[in-house]
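Homework help thread (please don't just give me the answer)

Our assignment gives two proteins as sequence + structure token strings and asks us to describe the second one. The first is just a warm-up. Here they are:
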Amino acid sequence: MAGIKQTKAELLFEIEQLKKQIAKLTNEDKNSLSFDNNESIQSEPDYHRIFNEVHDPILVFEPEDEIILDVNEQATQVYGYKRSELIGMSLKKISKFVPRGEENIRKTLQKGTYKHFETTHISKEGREIHLEINASVLKYMGQTAILSINRDITERKKADFAIRESERKLSTILDNIPGMAYRCLMDKFWTMKFISKGCKEITGYSQLELLNNKELSYENLIYPEDREIVRREVFKTLDTHKQFELEYRIIRKDGLIRWVWERGVQINEKMDGIPLLEGIIEDITDRQIAEYELKEAYDIINKSPAIPFLWKNEEGWPVEFVSDNVVDLFEYTAEEFMSEKVGYSKVIHQEDLERVGNEIKRYSSEEGTYRFGHEPYRIVTKSGKIKWVEDKTYIRRDEKNNITHYQGIVEDITA
């Protein structure tokens, strides 16, 4: 009996040491097994009472064939087997990765202890159990055995997977949005703490070059004349957490000047006491150029005698668009036409209206006709003056060949 009692004390000592090790990792000292290593174990029930106080499954098995020699109550709960079913069973029956298990056993025998490795076992009902293992070699009932404390980390694994999956999806979204997403400090450098891959296309710099101002700060990317404007507008939102939008210029790595649009907001987090911004930045250079060219085109049109119209294919030919110079001829503003306060049919001289309408019907019904010219007709200005105009019209059709609009150029030909 003395030999058996000594073995039990050694076993309990191993349990205590391994539990302390787990407690350090998880900060769950309140759940750890605690007892005096010199505690006297008077009977087999005393031994199993202490053995079963451990909150993780414990398996004691011989290493050669991996035959289970003893288990605690928690092992039966986690694995779903009765104690009598587990004792005498080989670990290979419940191990998902048998070769990996054999390798772990070899390492445990070589080192004496092998801690914090992970493996997967299968429960009686076929459920996968992800485990973190602390294993130690000991003498059990006179033979070499391994004591394994198996912490069930299945839920943690699921949570980790869910987090990684969310991060992956978020990363995919951020890397595929137009432009670049960012998180930066509201400091004098706009220090980037996160930046998506789109930064390369916009700035010419990689993520690594911009993160933490490694090669260049974002402040230095901003065109010098725009830096103060950006800072002033962003800091207007400090502590209000209101969204801001800005358009400004940056200087790319290759020296090109590009226009960008930024939308951002101060978030409810700080780093080293410094507020953080999150937002997106897009290259709008092409849009800026197009808007500039369009403005120039409008300026040219509005200074010319030609007046572009876009009429809907509806009764009375309501005006969807007309240039501002319409007022020079018709004396009605573009707004008066486009708000449908004035219908185009109302300004055509009543003696010419039927003819103009018939011309539209005739050319619209001719297959293959996309443009036509009206015979000159008269219009009546806002003040009642009569003017002669020439009207060259293009027909717009949809994908079903239905006419949606008429687009024309009207010019004053009054002698």
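The one we have to describe:
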Amino acid sequence: MEKRFKFTQQRIEKLPVPDKGRFEYYDTEISKLICRVSSTGNKSFAVLKKTDEGTTKRVTLGRFPSMPVALAKELAQSALTEIAKGVNPTEEKRKRRYRAISLEGLLNQYLADKKTYVRKQLSITARRSEPALVTGSRCRSIKSLATW
């Protein structure tokens, strides 16, 4: 299959999935718009743009089919406009995301993650120590088990 063609809903749906790695296909209407197809079957739209330093920036727009081709083309045009103005769309998206996070939300997320981690660690510790505790100490009194 050719690497450059006009992106349509049907053409993107029919793109083959590679055995390993990724394939990149380029739109003929918007030359910087690409569709990346991974070996897992994921298809995503992105914009490639060379910077003044000579590096290539990739701005991921979204996944197909939740993002239709028409919307991907619109977003590609706006991303290319922002890049031409010297704005990095990826950095702007990251800044908006961080501005939306409050200290309370961050703390709640941390505590939820910590709670899950502690619960998992306690479960592992209990499984490891249960046989030793049960076999040798089943009939002993609590007072005799105390070390103080």
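TA reply:
I won't write it for you, but here's a hint about the kind of observation we're looking for: DSSP finds five helices and five strands in the chain.
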